[in-house]
Every structure is written in structure tokens, then in C-alpha cells.
Write a structure and sequence with these properties.
75% helix; mainly alpha; 0% strand; elongated
């Protein structure tokens, strides 16, 4: 596609690169090798410009992502706090109902650490029931 702004220029290009351009002409909408090369140059120039603008966009994007992460961290911290309160209440009820001595408590803690480690932190109530039935 020729326009009055087109200028004929001579360039040196690696033969293998030129062959690859020719092989890929059919994959594009380019009508000629010149149009293919012009499109490739346009694409590369656009990429260079977008690379420059990313330096400006990155701090803004970092700020937005940082804000979202902070909000999520606060939400998770509140949920963990609420769960910790419930677990503490449950432990007090169990401690009050059963007179557990220090030796049994230490053995239980060791058992639980081993079991939770073995299961990769995916300990379920069913696991505790299974262990207690042994």
C-alpha cells in the first residue's frame, strides 16, 4: 500500500530474518514485504512508547495494589482475631470441664504438633476423632 508519504530506502537486513518475514507474510494482512516491515516497525515503536509509559503507570499501579493488599491484610487480621477469641473460649471451657495435668498437656501438644505437621496444616475434627478412638 503506497501513499505519497512513502519513501524508498535501502537497508541491510540479515537474509534469515528477511526469509522469516517472507514466510510470515501470509499470516498477516500485509500485501507486500514493505507493508509487513512497516507494520513491524510500527509495532516495535508502539512497544517502545508503552515501555516508557510503564515507568509512569507503575507507581500508580503499585499504589492501588498496595491499598488492596493492606485492606485484605486488615480483613484477614480481624477474622483471625475473632477466631482466636472463639478458640480461647473453647479452651477455657475444656480446661474447666476436664482437669488436665501438665504432663498430659505436654504430651498432647507434642502429638498435635506432629499430627498437624504430618498433615501439612490440614487438620480436621475427623482427624482428632480418629486419633482419640485409637
Amino acid at each position: 500500500m503506497q501513499s505519497k508519504n512513502n519513501v524508498r530506502v535501502g537497508i541491510y537486513i540479515d537474509k534469515n530474518l528477511l526469509d522469516r518475514c517472507d514466510e510470515n507474510l501470509a499470516r498477516t494482512n500485509a500485501a507486500s514485504r514493505s507493508e509487513f516491515i512497516s507494520d513491524a516497525i510500527e509495532l516495535y515503536l508502539s512497544w517502545l512508547v508503552s515501555k516508557d509509559t510503564s515507568r509512569v503507570l507503575t507507581p500508580a499501579l503499585e499504589s492501588v495494589i498496595g491499598g488492596k493488599i493492606a485492606t485484605t491484610e486488615n480483613h484477614i487480621a480481624r477474622v483471625i482475631f475473632k477466631q482466636s477469641v472463639e478458640i480461647a473460649m473453647m479452651m477455657h471451657v475444656i480446661a474447666g470441664a476436664f482437669q488436665i495435668d501438665e504432663d498430659n498437656l505436654d504430651r498432647l501438644r507434642g502429638l498435635c504438633v506432629d499430627e498437624v505437621s504430618r498433615l501439612g496444616g490440614k487438620f480436621k475434627f475427623e482427624d482428632a476423632v480418629r486419633i482419640q478412638k485409637r
